[in-house]
Amino acid sequence: MNHPARTLLITGASGNLGRAVAQHFRALGERLILLDHSPQALQQHFGDWPQAQALCLDCDLLDPAALAAALARARQHFGPIEVLCNLAGGFDMGPPVHATPLEAWQRQYQLNLLTALHACQAVVPDMLALGRGKIVNIGALAAAHQGAPHMAAYTTAKAAVIRMTESLAAELREQGINVNCILPSIIDTPENRAAMPDADPARWVRPQQLAEIIGFLCSNAANPIHGAALPVSGLS
Predict the structure, then answer these.
(1) In this predicted model, what pLDDT tens digit does every residue of 194-228 receive, in sequence order?
(2) Which residues are in the Ketoreductase domain (predicted)?
(3) 146 domain residue, yes or no
């Protein structure tokens, strides 16, 4: 680690990627705020981690007031937030665009865009006060260049995350804050293996590989990088 220990907020901490990212930064000695909507999942995966290094908070990211209260507690424990890993999100296939109900569009925007937006809005003031910070959002390779059938609600939400990342980066780069996103293809998770039993998961991206890339974007080595949307496709 090429800097003193920092305070990191990881949203979606109990997910496959969240756990890998938490393990990555724990090994570096960072102070971790592990946020997830499920207290049971937090206890299952992080219950034995010492509070001197990891604070678990269950919170609904779609409720800005609840998020503000949770982060107030986190700041009392660890101080201002210097790094945000915005990993919360969700995926659903769906019917064709003309048959996708409004509720499905709203769900994907809530899960993927609004969770990231609310977390950014909550922590950027800390970073502005410090004069430094790192934010990494999660887009999707499927949202990078063109639409895909039966994924419109998901890919448009993730495309919005990419555009939000670029806008934040343009607004904050002069204040010492780096904002970037990664664009994974298929992540090697138990859920994806079950959903695609005939696929070769060796061609997918492992959560630990994504964690290392996120770790790089949160490091001083990435100081010159602003507004990047980095494809991470493996061989898929």
Answers:
(1) 999 999 999 999 999 999 999 999 999 999 999 99
(2) 6-189
(3) yes
State how many domains the chain has.
1
What is the rounded end-to-end Cα distance, in angstroms, of the chain? Answer: 31
Taking the whole predicted model, whether its pTM rises above 0.85 is answered as yes
Evaluate whether residue 182 is within a structural domain: yes
Q: What confidence tens digit (pLDDT) does each residue in 38-67 have? A: 999 999 999 999 999 999 999 999 999 999
Report yes or no on 105 lying in a domain.
yes
